[in-house]
Amino acid sequence: MSVQRSTVIFAWILLLPAVLYVLAIVAYPLVDTFILSFTDASLRKTTNWVGWINYEKIFNERFAEVIFRTFIWTFFSVALKMVIGTFGACMLNAAVPGRSLFRLLTMPPWIVPMAIGIFMWGWMYNGQFGMISGMLQRFGLADGPVAFLAYGNTAFWATIITDVWIGVPLVTIYFLAAIQSIPKDLYEAAWTDGAGRWYRFRRITLPLMVPAIITMSMLSLIATFNSFDIIWILTQGGPSGETTTMIIDTYQTAIGSKKYGEGAARAVLICIFLSLFCFAYFRVTRRLNPEKRA
Amino acid sequence: MGQLFLNKVQKFYGDYEVLKGVQLEVKNGEFVVFVGPSGCGKSTLLRMIAGLDATSAGDIVIDGIRVNDLPPVKRGIAMVFQSYALYPHMTVFENIAFPLRVERMEEEKLKAKVENAARILHLEQRLQQKPGMLSGGQRQRVAIGRAIVREPKIFLFDEPLSNLDAALRADMRIELAKLHRQLKATMIYVTHDQVEAMTMADRIVVLDSGDISQTGAPLELYHKPANQFVAGFIGNPKMNFLPVTCKGVGANGVEVDYQGQTAVLPVTPRDGIAGKALTLGIRPEHIQLGGGDIVFKVTPTVIERLGANTVAYASLNGESENFCAMLPGSVGIRADAPVATGINAADCHLFDEAGIAFERRVELTEIDMNVINPTAA
Amino acid sequence: MGQLFLNKVQKFYGDYEVLKGVQLEVKNGEFVVFVGPSGCGKSTLLRMIAGLDATSAGDIVIDGIRVNDLPPVKRGIAMVFQSYALYPHMTVFENIAFPLRVERMEEEKLKAKVENAARILHLEQRLQQKPGMLSGGQRQRVAIGRAIVREPKIFLFDEPLSNLDAALRADMRIELAKLHRQLKATMIYVTHDQVEAMTMADRIVVLDSGDISQTGAPLELYHKPANQFVAGFIGNPKMNFLPVTCKGVGANGVEVDYQGQTAVLPVTPRDGIAGKALTLGIRPEHIQLGGGDIVFKVTPTVIERLGANTVAYASLNGESENFCAMLPGSVGIRADAPVATGINAADCHLFDEAGIAFERRVELTEIDMNVINPTAA
Amino acid sequence: ADKEISWIYCGDTIDPVHTKYIKQWEEKNTGWKIAPEVVGWAQCQDKATTLAAAGTPVAMAYVGSRTLKEFAQNDLIVPVPMTDDEKKTYYPNIVDTVTFEGTQWGVPIAFSTKALYWNKDLFKQAGLDPEKPPKTWAEEIEMAKTIKEKTGIPGYGLPAKTFDNTMHQFMHWVYTNNGKVIDADGKVTLDSPEILAALKAYKDIVPYSEEGPTAYEQNEVRAIFLDGKVAMIQAGSGAADRLKATKISWGITTLPLGPDAKGPGTLLITDSLAIFKGSGVEDKATEFAKFITSPDVQSEYELQGGAGLTPLRPSSKVDEFVAKDPYWKPLIEGISYGGPEPLFTDYKGFQNSMIEMVQSVVTGKAEPEAALKKAAGEIEAFK
Amino acid sequence: MSNAAMIDRYRWWEIILIYCGIAMFLFFVLSPFVEGFLVSLKPLSQLFSSPYRFWPENGSFEAYRTMWISVPGFGRYIFNSFFISTVVTLIVLCLVIPAAYAFAKFEFRGMGILLGAFLTVNMFSGAVLLIPLFRLMRSMGVLNTYLAMIVPGVAFLIPSAIWLLRTYMIRIPQELNEAAYMDGASHFYTLRRVILPIAMPGIIVVAITTFIGAYAQQFIFALTFNSKTEYMPLPVGLFAYFGKQEVIWNELMAASFVGIAPAMVVIFFLQRYLVGGLTAGAVKQ
Ligand SMILES: Nc1ncnc2c1ncn2[C@@H]1O[C@H](COP(=O)(O)OP(=O)(O)OP(=O)(O)O)[C@@H](O)[C@H]1O
Ligand SMILES: Nc1ncnc2c1ncn2[C@@H]1O[C@H](COP(=O)(O)OP(=O)(O)OP(=O)(O)O)[C@@H](O)[C@H]1O
Ligand SMILES: [Mg+2]
Ligand SMILES: [Mg+2]
């Protein structure tokens, strides 16, 4: 069918610039990284092919722990983003005066350079001079400075909260948009039947947001899995490695210790994990909308 | 139970007065249809009765209680939306069960009720499907099912059939009529399709830009429209209007002159209309080929042959297709071939300059009084 | 020049055969309407003619040239979409001018053409507005305007009126009929509303799940449906079907028995049908109160009073509302009150077990041959 | 045109002293141009490394001396041998910080040592003699305890965040107890009684330190000290400068000594100019590096005060300076028994192990002996 | 009586709850900024003082003045950020609009895989690929130019932009394409004259997200691939407030606020499109 062939060719022409660009800029370093992962590349000028050794090295006990921690960290962060994003979207959707201002006010964490946002959180978490500790003491909820970044579990949560904070604006706005695209008459019908606000949220809003939630979960999963700056600036993976995630470990290995080969292997591993997520995502969305698009 | 009273109900959007003091009483068990052209405020009025929109002024009284500030569920009404507003993520069963779940009805009773509703609406086979898999008519029935399980005092329908195709619409019309008889609930039905209005209503309320233009049984509106607006709106094809001059008033009615021909129309005369320009109304179905009290030649420009009848359109006085005649199916007319048509004075309507009708001296009993006021029967 | 020939056109979606070898010839200047129930392949066929969908097998020939592999613009075709597909960001002028801009027509000529189209369609006042500000009927006319500026040989319409309300639909029907006469172009029109089909078509093509069921002038289909499917599909309300037994064959037609009453139907008999179960078809408008060749008592369950006529529905043989009669407007019947109805043998249709009609001995000339084949006139 | 010597310069702006002498040098060496690139402290080291690793080294970069071994072993930098005369101009032990396999690999340009600061007001408040700072670890711990118990304010500011200076601070304790992490032959001697003693002292002083030491690095601890919320800290000259702006009455002394100490010690941290191999201008860069760190230039640069630098070389100017600002004295005194940052091939790996060790003791997760053993085992791999 | 739809009418306690909810949410979102703002008002010497005082004692906007002096190039950094982001946004749009259109409107073999591949690119933070990227930039000869920041920036912003725009474009009715095709318009003409104008709200959304991505977040490329101070973007400029010994916190915070102000202004004017554009695009997928 000549008609269709020309269409396919046109589609590829449209895609080509973007594809070539990404291929040139990202694919090459990607392949480079992949090759590197089989070598002992370091600062030394000569590199040797070492086969699977780098991958074998990864699976020492410590790294298993890091992987596990990464998953937990990511899980909580993404889950919180979804919960807070949903909450925020619902609140900002309420027809109360000032809501467009409130919507604007959710944007700053997204706009501010990430490092700066993190520094501000660093201030907040500071036990001696920070706002949280200060307020807790002021209100008598703590009898001395509370150093949030000092202990494994508080630091763990502190980094998660900061990650959530950075991710929440986009999630909120996206969810807000999703909520607004739910037909209003569904709510009116439910209300006519006596469903209260909470009931309407639970039985209508939430189920109909599922596609948006899945999409956002996927996108923020990728971002969160790779979230580096937050942990690095706040704790550098400490104390005692309790906030070290895969990406931190990869950075420490590749950039800190200059073991480029081993670092590359870790990067490849991250990529494999994320590809699995992606794959799962596609499966799930296909099941959700089995019919092709309209 | 299910008696509704609208007392000077008004609605403003900003400065714009959408409803201008609607006064209406709906009896228990009545099937009332709101008709009117697009934008006349039908949906707004319905939504105000439902409690979806706020009332700017006036009272909405249901069973003697002023409900202006009550939420819909407390008003004992159920509404079927034009878009059906089915929950896409729930099965038909859950959609119908929704109002009962809200009430936290216990599972067994709920199941019995939903199944009963499904039986009435012939949805038994569909209960486990999602709305996306249903046809338009089935969706419509699900929406109705959701309304009936609650056993409301009053049903509100906002153009429920307008998304359906003609055949389905006809079927659903019948089903709704039967449902009304079965449930004996008060129903208020909005449509801009006046065929629906004519066929389903006990009483039709014709709205004209925020005002009630006339209220009455379908055939009353058909035979005795109170004004030119109602006359034009009720009946399909539309009534033809011809400019006439009043020649005089007699015992038998009003004598009018149309292009030199005179006829005495059997309507109740009024004083001081002699010599005035009036409007004569004649329905297309009352135009016949050949003789009549007034005859004129027309050249049909468009002829629609529907099988059972034939509709001919013609220009009168140079205006575009302002004249329409509905003739028998096998009538021998052709486009562009002039024919002689005639009308009988008894079929004519007469309107004054303001569009107010002169009362026709039609004995509605002749037509079968029982039909005109079926609830009275 | 706008002659179209479809030669054994087939369409597969995967294994599913949507069109099963459609064979059709459309004459230059003809107005052909495709009708058929939803999903029968009307849109698919139209889109294949347009060149939007590929043809799986068979030839599409326009003016003697096989166009299967040509893009739409080279086929000399314009299409009006059901959703109008107006460009929301362009003014009416730009929307209409779009095809000319594509051709890079020079500004002056373009302007003249657009203005001409706008005049034909009464859109002069709207040229600078955006589609969002127009009413449904106006949008529809813009879509047509975009089609006519290109001066195509063939117009394709896919349910162009289905989004409009009844009154507007009636108006647009007339305008389209006039436009056809004015442009003298070939038009192919898809609809599932058979009123539109009856009123507009020179020739109707009835499609039944991918096959042509019958082709013919509207009244030919009305009076002489080739099979039960067409008989049921053409005519509104739907034809009633009654189970009868063949008693025998005579010179005057076929003698059938319906619940003990016999009548001789004036149809061309076939051999070996005596004793067989057949189906008698009778249109609602041919049912009368009182006498007839076959009479039976029915109890109307639903009565629709449309003013000009009254439609009564009844259950026959315990099935739900399978019997419908169209009676005069002021007929004195009531729901749940039994009445005697009758039919005349001359009005009846007869179908064999496979649903194939026996040819009726109706003189179509009696009905006015000119109307049945207007192009021949 | 001019030949360029690219220089990664850490900081926010080029020091005016350097600007002045760059100009001077460029005038003397026509046809040569110094092209400094100012990179923030947090990233400058990584940037130089990335450039070198990618094969486009800069001519010269400001790097921590600790990385010199790594660079040298990977053949990224050229040696910058010093003549004995040159070596002699420096304070003792300083040359060691840039020495590896018998030759020098960088020119020291910045130097810092630490001393003990104490808050006299708090001492007084706790009933201690405000003029008598602790001389030994035992006294230090004891005083910290007293202060904490008497005033409720922590006695000691202990930085233990996952940060390089956590190890630095610990190294002060190592060098004030005659400890050594790695000996001249490259043998790891971490698991030694001296260092164990230091680790134990850490464990002992934690209860009297600020809440959550693992949340603070050195500068933050210093800020707490400046706020009067901790009584003693180990800090460099920068603290003195800042203390002047506060109402605190304070003292400074050499770091308290451990049981095995031979004399006042401190960790000697130097930053050096490293000359990268492959830039094509190695010789001229070396020449410039020596010039910009020559005694006159250097003393002008480091004695501006406030930057936290300790003088690299003794000189009359330094003496004048010390006379004027006596707080310099303990900072310089420590040099005599001080030690360099231990040089490891994978310095970061080593550092991480050390931090981990300190943190596990500070948080009470591990006993000093076990932590030390574990770390000693780990760092073997980073040599 | 208010004219708000009845369903949106709240009882007094619901209003209170909603405002409480919004307050909680905004508190979470904004409290670091409050802290940051207070820091920017405090004199450096007072920054580190306890007990915690919410209102700075003798706070002033002094830092907003001195920040320009401490880092004289700061205005330039903002300009650079603006410039780089604008160019990046333009390039991204040029590449992404056709690609998103192809993904949205055509069905062809390998589309799913390709789309997945684009998502994969999203997975790599530039940090991991830094050294190979550096080599690439060097061989392209764009080190130490604006391009050094623009080229990789574009690459890493393309994938999410394609995702966003594609979901938007899917919702443009197919009939519009078909109508244009019927009229003989070429694919390209259709894209330019029909799709592009209609997709404008979606394009604006993508432009905003891309702009912000480039404005504030592309730190690492700037740092590694560019050595020229005069080309540095805002985030690098902010790091100029970090000294070896000390961070000039108050000026850093002041500078941050000044730095994000332009982007906030942009958002302020475009936020209507932001929510609206996403609305149209957010439903499916
Ligand atoms: N939220 C609103 N703000 C302002 N005007 C409105 C609003 N909603 C409706 N209107 C106006 O009120 C009038 C009545 O609207 P309504 O929807 O009740 O008409 P309708 O009779 O239902 O028409 P249709 O048959 O087209 O549904 C219209 O002119 C409309 O423009
Ligand atoms: N892309 C497709 N893939 C598979 N089947 C299709 C596709 N498009 C249409 N069909 C099927 O082809 C048949 C004919 O569809 P078509 O749209 O032509 O029907 P139609 O007669 O126009 O119906 P309607 O009156 O509802 O518009 C339907 O059964 C439909 O399910
Ligand atoms: Mg309405
Ligand atoms: Mg169709």
UniProtKB/TrEMBL annotation, chain A:
Keywords per UniProt: Cell membrane, Membrane, Transmembrane, Transmembrane helix, Transport
Compartments where located: Cell membrane
Name of this protein: Sugar ABC transporter permease
One BP annotation, GO: transmembrane transport
Stored Gene3D superfamilies: MetI-like
Domain ABC transmembrane type-1: residue ranges: 67-281
Residue stretches spanning the membrane: 7-31, 71-92, 104-125, 155-177, 206-225, 264-284
Primary site of residence: membrane
Superkingdom of the organism of origin: Bacteria
Membrane topology recorded in Swiss-Prot or TrEMBL: Multi-pass membrane protein
Cellular compartments per GO CC: plasma membrane
Protein family per UniProt: Belongs to the binding-protein-dependent transport system permease family.
Automatic annotation (TrEMBL), chains B, C:
Membrane topology type: Peripheral membrane protein
Record-linked InterPro entries: AAA+_ATPase, ABC_transporter-like_ATP-bd, ABC_transporter-like_CS, ABC_transpr_MalK-like, ABC_transpr_MalK/UgpC-like, Mo/tungstate-bd_C_term_dom, NA-bd_OB-fold, OB_MalK-like
Keyword Nucleus listed: no
UniProt-recorded name of the protein: sn-glycerol-3-phosphate ABC transporter ATP-binding protein UgpC
GO cellular component: ATP-binding cassette (ABC) transporter complex, substrate-binding subunit-containing; maltose transport complex
Pfam families: ABC_tran (PF00005), OB_MalK (PF17912)
Highest rank taxon of the organism: Bacteria
Main location: membrane
Gene: ugpC
Subcellular location: Cell inner membrane
Xref: CDD domains: ABC_MalK_N
Family: Belongs to the ABC transporter superfamily.
From TrEMBL, chain E:
Example of a GO biological process term: transmembrane transport
Localization annotation: Cell membrane
Domain of life: Bacteria
PROSITE patterns membership: ABC_TM1
Keyword Transmembrane: yes
Membrane spanning stretches: 12-34, 77-101, 113-134, 146-165, 194-216, 252-270
Chief location of this protein within or outside the cell: membrane
Keywords (A to Z) from UniProt: Cell membrane, Membrane, Transmembrane, Transmembrane helix, Transport
SUPFAM superfamilies the record matches: MetI-like (SSF161098)
Full protein name: Carbohydrate ABC transporter permease
Species the sequence originates in: Rhizobium sophorae
Classification of source organism: Bacteria, Pseudomonadati, Pseudomonadota, Alphaproteobacteria, Hyphomicrobiales
